[in-house]
Design brief:
Methane Monooxygenase Hydroxylase, Chain G, domain 1, 5 helices, 5 strands, metal ion transmembrane transporter activity
Length: 266
């Protein structure tokens, strides 16, 4: 297996001297991975994590005597000139692992504050984290398909017998990444479900208290409305009728509040 002998950094993929098919892939960020033989040369396209929100395609051209890697100017890969294809895959996976670890830490922070409730902004952040995990999982799965192809067809520029162990390690690493992503996705789903349950519970409590308040307020309204009718009622001709009405209303209201509090309605 040879080292990368040449790197070409570009700002516009249309300026590259590459087949149109390859340039279309470089311009499509949704194209996660691909391998194609064209004009006696092999082209491998993989998704390299540009940042936590997106990935950037990179292209490896395999010719008879060398490997050439095409990278966008926004991508920086350390010591690229010393890497072979296997090393490049490991480096790519390490970047995905660091992004996944960041999401793991963020999910732990959400778990610590979940008891106090989760705001709509935090729910949006959780949904965005879930989308990121799906993107990473799709990208890693696509790279795995490329590695499987190389392991099956064994192109001499990308595969050698000593590298077989590295290839197995790559597949193991990818499986672990996939398991971590699945675990984090389940954790985020649980957090979202619990947050929905907490929100519904709080909403039910608020609605119950509003109903109790409405009922309690209606008591003095009901009492005073009776005395506003043109019918004979006790104390209506008493000199302290107004005060007595207030006392009766206050007593009934206090009794209703006591009953509601005893039954844990407040």
């Amino acid at each position: 297996m040879v080292k990368f002998m040449k790197q070409i950094v570009y700002s516009d993929y249309n300026d590259l001297d590459l087949p149109l098919y390859v340039k279309k892939y470089l311009g499509n960020h949704n194209a996660l991975a691909n391998i194609r033989d064209l004009d006696d040369e092999s082209y491998i396209i993989m998704s390299y994590p540009f940042d936590e929100n997106s990935v950037q395609p990179i292209c490896i051209k395999q010719s008879q005597n060398e490997l050439t890697i095409y990278t966008h100017e926004s991508i920086e890969i350390e010591n690229l000139e010393t890497l072979n294809f296997t090393d490049l895959v490991f480096t790519t996976l390490e970047h995905y692992e660091s992004l996944i670890q960041k999401i793991h830490l963020e999910s732990e922070a959400f778990q610590e504050t979940m008891g106090n409730g989760i705001t709509k902004m935090q729910v949006d952040q959780l949904i965005l984290m879930k989308r990121h995990l799906i993107l990473y999982q799709q990208a890693v799965t696509a790279i795995k398909e490329v590695v499987d192809y190389i392991q099956d067809h064994k192109p001499k520029q990308l595969w050698s017998q000593p590298s077989q162990c590295d290839t197995v390690n790559i597949l193991i690493e990818m499986k672990q990444i996939d398991q971590n992503i699945s675990m984090l996705s389940e954790i985020i789903d649980v957090i979202l479900d619990v947050s929905n349950a907490l929100y519904s519970n709080k909403l039910n409590i608020v609605m119950k208290r509003l109903a109790v308040i409405t009922l309690v307020i209606s008591i003095p309204t009901l009492v005073t409305s009776f005395y506003g009718m043109n019918v004979d009622l006790p104390f209506q001709n008493h000199s302290y009728a107004l005060i007595l009405i207030f006392i009766i209303s206050l007593g009934l209201t206090s009794f209703a509040l006591y009953i509601m509090q005893k039954r844990d309605y407040l």
